[in-house]
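OP here, attaching both records as promised.
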Amino acid sequence: MSLIAGNLRVVQQLLDQSGMAWAVCAGAAAHLYGNRRPIQDVDLLVAQGQLNTIVKLLQSAQKAVQFDGQRIIWRGIKVFDDLTLRQNGMVHPYTLDAAMTERRRRLPLLGNQVQTLAPEDVVIHKLLMGRGAEQGKHDLEDVAGIVRRQQLDGAYIAERVKLANAGRISVQLREFGVELGD
């Protein structure tokens, strides 16, 4: 088992035992849904305001973590409670809400059964980020892989695009062959 796998198991057990809502997001989620590039780290999204609680959980398990007030970093695992993007004077809210929590899926990742954001939520975040090889990232490549391998709920995506104030990505979604529902 890899170091990240073991660390993921520790964090997963602490979060599950606490009853806290959480989900794998970003590149590791994209890996599960389509784009099978190597996993360098695992990003987790938790409900807003939970980071201090998670720091205490990890510290009570004798884990030394880095915490800058916006994210927790511990040995290949990064935990966020707000991935809201601010771009070109626009704010694109992206936090773990009830709809995202309800659509999570438990999937196998590095030998662990982890809560994972729905592919639709991963696609929206990746399109908002929109980074490519020039930034050393794979957002658009990840979206292409997810769209190829997953049946996406167009109505849910349309709803989430509105909530994220992200109408600008509708054109990109259609270019990737995603039909938005009403």
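Record two, same layout:
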Amino acid sequence: MRATQGIAVIDYKAGNLTSVMKALDALGCQATVTADPEVVRGAGKVILPGVGHFQATLMLEETGLAAAVGEVIAQGVPFLGICVGLQWLFAGSTEAPAVKGLGLFTGQCERFAPGVKVPHVGWNEVRTDAGSRLMRGVEDRSFVYYTHSFRAPVITETVAVTSYGGPFSGAVERGNVMGVQFHPEKSWTVGLLILKNFCEVR
């Protein structure tokens, strides 16, 4: 029987797990770090954090975690990808062309164009979509914390846009599937509000 509470935070050796868990704990959200596909299948919600190279997502396929995530998303379980976790929701990334993403959103993640300092590190503002459940209550032009060299394109499902050498998706959302390029666990009160919104999604 599917759990109705509890968040599975996926450990694939590329996530900022400690900071994410501290933020969830501060919000009173019940969460467990796991690399077990069966735990993911039984979770009420799933978070996929990520830092570093897109190549690391290959482990999701090799361990059966990708299949488990695909199954729970299809069943309507709320899912949140953070940083590389958002990029994995797209077709892939030019950072690791041979590694496929989950392909739930159209387009491919690409490196920032020449002319801007890479990686993009620090605080930047987001233009938000008032209709987003994930970004509910986040004021337009709020600042969030980024650290990344590759970015996702702006698509129909983009609910927050940031500009750095051009616009890119700061957050995407379609039904139960959500992702943020920034790090909510490092974005102070704005980030905590976004994580709180995710914890409350039904």
